Amino acid sequence: MQSIGKTCFTAMFALLATMSATASAAAPSAKPLTTSDVLDNSQSSDWRTPNAVDLLILTLDDDDGARVVMELAPAFAPQHADNLRALAREHYFDGLAIMRVQENYVVQWGDPDGDKREVRTAKRTLPGEFFRSASGLNFSALPDADVYAPEVGYVDGFPAARDRQRGQAWLAHCYAALGVGRAMGADSGGGTELYVVIGHAPRHLDRNITLAGRVLQGMEHLSALPRGTGTLGFYEKPEQYVKIRSLRLAADLPESERVALQVLRTDTATWKAYVETRRFRRDAWFIEPTGHADVCNVGVPVRAAP
Amino acid sequence: MQSIGKTCFTAMFALLATMSATASAAAPSAKPLTTSDVLDNSQSSDWRTPNAVDLLILTLDDDDGARVVMELAPAFAPQHADNLRALAREHYFDGLAIMRVQENYVVQWGDPDGDKREVRTAKRTLPGEFFRSASGLNFSALPDADVYAPEVGYVDGFPAARDRQRGQAWLAHCYAALGVGRAMGADSGGGTELYVVIGHAPRHLDRNITLAGRVLQGMEHLSALPRGTGTLGFYEKPEQYVKIRSLRLAADLPESERVALQVLRTDTATWKAYVETRRFRRDAWFIEPTGHADVCNVGVPVRAAP
Fold this sequence. Notes:
By secondary structure, chain A is an alpha+beta fold. In chain A, about 15% of the residues lie in helices and about 25% in strands.
């Protein structure tokens, strides 16, 4: 009844969620804009290039040397950003491993021998940076409400929340968030154990643990890893560990090994238009655009630098 | 500084999200209950056994014959539930394949040859069952608000939403939801292409496409599949397809091949207590229990029948 071509085509509409600026002619101006329209019409000034000192590149020790690119959020976790830079610079994670992949939750890496590896210039632990002052941030509020916070939005591309009454702002635990594992004490983490969210947003962790950034590229190298069968998704045998070849700061790599990525700015008219296309899906397939979007379901587009 | 044992232990608290009733002594009554406490204290009457005519078992054609168990939701999609039973009974999916795994979105299966496979007793298409009447449902409302709907909660273990003004109720696109792919028309799907949500809840699909159930067991066999590199996560080469050995109704299997699962009832005092432990995380690790939970972040526990 349906050709595969047609099936694929309609599936595009059926389940459109791609964040990339895929080819698509701009809609006639009579029609409301779609997400693709907005991205296609974006100007170079709508995009920002992350600082090389804020980009971490995790390279797995597999045949392809799969790479995961993360952006640090020093505006929210300045001490942890500094410490992660220090850990990267002393090659702390080289040869360590991903030890935990918990279904619908997190991928976690660190020292399988239990933090035995020496830290040199980096610190082992830091005070938690669970939230910060709400002032002094370029906060683009989302018009929709949130289940967990009085207000949500985006700061420099990072999904975030704000409580003006308390005067606090914090990063939200959305898919792809990069966090810093800790033990019982608020100050018991420092960055030698890191995790990335791979399931539905565990927002109950917000303000309980430090988020230090988010993955910009290569999530599929983490999210498609075999789930650990031990308690909480820990791998039960050392041979199951996913070895880490290196974790480096882009600034420390030769130009040829860096990644040239751009992130859609979240403080522009284009951003506002983009958000509206996520709140009201205007692709022909949609029958009932919801008119709402949750902070973790908007998606901040990332592209290869043109 | 931390032994691996300690690290694992504390990580348990750090990132507790397991839905299973894992061993854990009940807390002294002075302390607020944790999720484990509530499950440990549950009675057999707090659990229900899904009907064998509502359980679909997808068996992948890999070495292990990995199985994914799904429960149909005839209260919300009666015609699609019937049609999926008919498709299972005519062995429609045997030898077909998973053709699409889109990062942070869906896994989709069907006929790679584009619905060429004949249907016999089943129907190729059906009118969409995107929502139903809000009345006549055993709806356990969640006390928290929702970004997308006036009210959310659970019906027989399925995350659902309700709009009393419109008199509508519908299933929510949470992680593990089972949906029925469609083309442009609201009546263009029928069940020959199915998808399961593997990422952050794509709630913008609510009321735009038919949800027919949810995965109870075996999500990891779908969520850890390699992502497709084609548009929208389609596999680009036939050799990448993940072959399906069979999709059967549990009722049609010999007793030895069935699965004995139980789902926590969502209309009991235990359920209400469970939800409170998800809204207010009382495990010692938490510093700031949020006091909120979104409908896709509560989790309806599933266990092996004792």
